[in-house]
Predict the structure.
Amino acid sequence: MMKIVIIGGSFAGIQAAIASREYYPTAEIVLLEKQPQIGYIPGSLALLLQGKMTELDQLNWVTAEELIEKYQIDVQCNQQVEALEEENQLRLNTNEIVSFDRLIIATGSGQFSRYDAMNSQEPKSRVLRFKTRSEAQLLLDQLPQADKIAIIGAGQVGLEVAEGLASTGREVHLFESNSQLLFRYLDREMTEPLTEAIQEAGVALYLNCFVQELVESGEAVTLTTADSQEAFDLVLIATSTRPDNSLWENALMLNDDGTILVDRWMQTSRTNVFAVGDAIQVTFRPTGELMYISLVNNALRTAKIAAANLAGPKLADQGTLRTVGNHLFGYYLGSTGLTESEGIFYPSKITSQVQELPVSLLSAEKQRIKLIFDDESRQLLGAQMVSAAPVLEVINRLAEAVRLKQTREMLSQGEAYFHPALNLPEPLFARGEQCHED
Ligand SMILES: Cc1cc2nc3c(=O)[nH]c(=O)nc-3n(C[C@H](O)[C@H](O)[C@H](O)COP(=O)(O)OP(=O)(O)OC[C@H]3O[C@@H](n4cnc5c(N)ncnc54)[C@H](O)[C@@H]3O)c2cc1C
């Protein structure tokens, strides 16, 4: 009987366990997680602050009980893996040895940042992260004493938590080194409504502003930029997450950015060992480039692929379009595929279109949609949308169009229902040819 061991009980590890059970009904499957629980959803803190839920672990994708009862997974929490030994064995922090026939590493990432090294004295009680449940709880414990809070990073994570904190009436300052919000996903003109809404909500926004130093003393943290020095009650780190794969560096090959090297079958440099999720790089489909892209859709897809290949190569990864959707400060925002600002990494010329259309015949709300095409083949490479109306599903439709390599002409012949209260009498993209081009 094959013994499959999975390390990490978050999105990738849980999905790997479920998919492994489907592929190998008789296998012994063990899931090791160092935290006391599995399946915590990192966005929970923002939802709680926004009043959309009342407890940190209210949201559960899959519980340990379900994994045990429905999928016969041996879920072991509070088990920290310390080393990958020779001969298909793992060593735990208790010195216990766990052997395996196949191993899936799903140890993910953390909100590590340059500021960790800067403030070497522990505990850094007022410079906080919030990806794990215990980190989020620490933040919630400190919140009653904190009126003035700085957030570093205006990506999805920083913006979500900024919205949550602003809604509690606190003074929120948001620092971003880039010249725009959400620069990984959206071109500048698509972020304009959001940028205005943030300021209207009372958040002090500093774009083009690199935080140079954080110094904690007494009850405050002093934050220094090129132009200012200001004290805050709390500073939250919302810069990009990174994996810490130092645990594996003697046993497995790593990439220069610290991710675990895998092939398209999710196999590492060791035959029986696979790695998935935030611990690895994925291929960005529009450019074919390998990149670190921390998203749940990548964690789930790579986990399913690894599980499929445990008994021999079956399924190769086709890569990601980096599709995201969010609701921030009253705006639904979505992105898939190449952005115009990434056009420099695309081998051919691109063209883009921006259309601003009503949502339906009944509604005064508009939706702004940006499409990016290969100039010669007219193939859709990427799309972005922003609207105050809940029309985010369009980004999934566009992601499929990019995945299926649909051209401008194919899009304009797409079929869609019509209802006067819900949409427009012709499919959104039938208008493609009439739009202005940038
Ligand atoms: C605040 C926040 C909000 C986010 N919101 C979204 C969102 O809305 N949508 C989206 O697509 N993405 C979101 N992301 C990104 C998303 O959370 C990650 O892409 C996803 O969690 C990756 O899943 P993973 O299973 O690969 O790794 P992780 O979620 O990082 O999980 C790794 C697991 O491995 C365990 N582990 C690590 N080392 C060991 C060890 N040595 N022994 C045992 N166990 C170990 C960890 O405790 C952890 O449970 C968010 C990220 C953050 C920080």
User: Anything to note?
Assistant: The pocket of flavin-adenine dinucleotide is lined by residues 7-13, 32-35, 42-43, 80-81, 106-109, 111, 130-131, 157, 241, 247, 277-278, 294-297, 299 (CB under 6 Å). Residues 330-437 form a domain with the Enolase-like; domain 1 fold (CATH 3.30.390.30).
